[in-house]
């Protein structure tokens, strides 16, 4: 069934005042170019490459948890995501990947779309520096290529976060690249030289500035290497993990800087106690924290991320791109994150306050009221 959406449509070539026509894919964008877009804004659906949970569901719990979290994020404009693990024993990581596979197999019934499409998995660990785990559970391990090979058979692993100093010979990085997995450095105490080598070998960076060796004028680490050399990097624009000035500095330095939520079960939920990979995390004041007070993922949704980026000075078109087209480009996907003929009809419509009014995933409407 064909759908037509009226408004200011954001295309790869800029804004058009007119209409988007689509079925499962974008058929056409009609109308004249405009330099003064006005609501409603018709944007590409958000692409979130780092999601641990939402709607009260922790993705590591398996079962229906991944689908439940995907439903929550779809109501906030996310149309595609990577289900993201936490550091865990090997059998728990295997079970998580089996759950990702099952979530990907579940088709939506005719009519309404239930949740954001799960593109695959992002393994955040376990090959991390045990001294820089942050809120990750204490299951860091040395790289194990046999384990990795087993995990890659269970579900599409599209990204993996690892600490480059724990892979001194580069065997893990070589295996990830050979398998088509996007490698990302994070939870690392690597030196500037180690970080630079990994980035020049094609790595991205996970939640820039957080859980990594930092930036200083005489003692640089992973963050300094990323600002100097990264082509792509995640950042969490909740304005809690990273202050506005640091986001703006990273924006000037890294062409492919893109936003992620790093959302946990508390996203979209009231204050209270939730789970993150078997740990208790507390939502209070818009933040997720361990009982120690350390940040533990976020309560962010992508529509809020968009509003935050606009609030700190990014034009709406750029903020949208850094939450859709840019993460899609990191995955090498031209069929999502953009509104152009031939792309999937993954669309979010926002009002003048940049609040979600309508979401389509593959041309199907999302029920914005469903829990």
Automatic annotation (TrEMBL):
Residues in Amidohydrolase-related domain copies: 41-366
Names of the cofactor(s): a divalent metal cation
Biological process terms in GO annotation: N-acetylglucosamine catabolic process
Cofactor stoichiometry and binding remark: Binds 1 divalent metal cation per subunit.
SUPFAM superfamilies: Composite domain of metallo-dependent hydrolases (SSF51338), Metallo-dependent hydrolases (SSF51556)
Annotated positions binding Zn(2+): 124, 187, 207
Binding site for substrate: 135, 210-211, 218, 241, 295-297
InterPro entries reported in the protein's UniProt record: Amidohydro-rel, GlcNAc_6-P_deAcase, Metal-dep_hydrolase_composite, Metal_Hydrolase
One GO MF term: N-acetylglucosamine-6-phosphate deacetylase activity
Keywords: Carbohydrate metabolism, Hydrolase, Metal-binding
Gene3D superfamilies: Metal-dependent hydrolases, Urease, subunit C, domain 1
Pfam families: Amidohydro_1
Residues forming the catalytic site: 262 (proton donor/acceptor)
Family: Belongs to the metallo-dependent hydrolases superfamily. NagA family.
Stated name of the protein: N-acetylglucosamine 6-phosphate deacetylase
Organism of provenance: Rubrimonas cliftonensis
Lineage: Bacteria, Pseudomonadati, Pseudomonadota, Alphaproteobacteria, Rhodobacterales
């Amino acid at each position: 069934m064909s759908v037509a959406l009226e408004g200011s449509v954001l295309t790869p070539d800029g804004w058009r005042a007119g209409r988007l026509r689509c079925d499962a894919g974008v058929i056409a964008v009609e109308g004249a170019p405009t330099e003064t877009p006005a609501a409603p804004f018709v944007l590409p659906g958000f692409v979130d490459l780092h999601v641990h949970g939402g709607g009260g569901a922790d993705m590591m719990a398996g079962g229906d948890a991944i689908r439940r979290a995907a439903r929550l994020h779809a109501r906030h404009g996310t149309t595609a995501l990577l289900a993201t693990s936490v550091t865990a024993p090997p059998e728990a990581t295997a079970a998580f990947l089996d759950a990702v596979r099952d979530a990907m197999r579940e088709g939506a019934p005719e009519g309404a779309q239930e949740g954001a499409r799960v593109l695959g998995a992002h393994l955040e660990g376990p090959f991390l520096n045990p001294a820089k785990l942050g809120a990750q559970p204490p299951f860091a391990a040395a790289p194990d290529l046999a384990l990795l090979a087993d995990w890659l058979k269970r579900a599409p692993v599209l990204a993996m976060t690892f600490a480059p100093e724990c892979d001194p010979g580069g065997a893990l990085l070589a295996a990830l690249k050979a398998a088509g997995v996007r490698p990302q450095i994070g939870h690392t105490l690597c030196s500037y030289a180690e970080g630079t080598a990994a980035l020049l070998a094609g790595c991205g960076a996970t939640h820039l500035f957080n859980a990594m060796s930092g930036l200083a004028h005489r003692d640089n680490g992973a963050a300094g290497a990323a600002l100097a050399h990264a082509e792509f990097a995640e950042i969490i624009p909740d304005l809690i993990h990273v202050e506005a000035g640091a986001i703006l500095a990273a924006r000037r330095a890294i062409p492919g800087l893109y936003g992620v939520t790093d959302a946990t079960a508390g996203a979209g939920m009231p204050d209270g106690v939730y789970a993150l990979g078997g740990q208790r995390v507390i939502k209070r004041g818009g933040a997720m924290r361990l009982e120690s007070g350390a940040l533990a993922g976020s309560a962010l949704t992508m529509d809020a991320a968009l509003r935050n980026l606009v609030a700190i000075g990014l034009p709406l078109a750029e903020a949208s791109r850094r939450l859709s087209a840019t993460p899609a480009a990191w995955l090498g996907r031209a069929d999502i994150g953009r509104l152009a003929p031939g792309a999937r009809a993954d669309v979010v419509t926002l009002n003048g306050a940049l609040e979600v009014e309508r979401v389509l995933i593959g041309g199907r409407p999302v029920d914005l009221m469903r829990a």
